[in-house]
Specification:
This protein is of the alpha/beta class. Helix content is 41%, strand content 19%. β4, α5 and β5 form a beta-alpha-beta unit.
């Protein structure tokens, strides 16, 4: 049997933490699907739009060598995504571990036979930190205009 893994994320301002999650996920499955959360779902979940639009984030992730397929995640419930893709393993950063949201996800996935696997969250690099740094640069006028 081919083990299918699913690694969802915003993958906004793609950085080493994102790369590590995808690399480690591929080591634990035969076929890796990277779920790229849509702009609308990110706005719903986080209250803000991503800096990089969905089409560009899909293209970036699609070109990572160990990603076999990308999927635009356009529904809020991960179980609905499972219903469409039928993956066996779900990969997430360990910042979800032990949280009510993470525990609910584990319980619901266990009911359909999906194993939830956590990877260490990359504390020193995150899209949130990069977003803050960009905001600071914009505030000081140090950011060059990109043509």
């Amino acid at each position: 049997m081919t083990t299918i893994g699913y690694a969802p994320g915003a993958y906004d301002l793609f950085h080493i933490g994102h790369l590590n999650v995808l690399k480690h996920a591929k080591q634990r499955c035969d076929y890796l699907i990277a779920g790229v959360v849509s702009d609308e779902m990110l706005e719903l979940a986080r209250g803000r739009a991503p800096m990089i639009p969905l089409a560009e984030r899909l293209e970036i992730v699609r070109n990572i060598g160990f990603v076999d397929e990308v999927h635009a995640e356009v529904v809020p419930d991960k179980l609905d995504t499972w219903g469409e893709l039928r993956f066996h393993r779900f990969f997430k950063g360990d910042d979800w571990r032990g949280t009510p949201k993470g525990e609910d996800l584990e319980r619901r996935f266990a009911e359909v036979g999906v194993e939830v696997i956590y990877f260490p969250y990359t504390m020193h690099t995150s899209s949130t930190a990069l977003r803050r740094a960009l905001a600071l640069l914009e505030g000081t006028g140090e950011r060059e205009e990109v043509q």
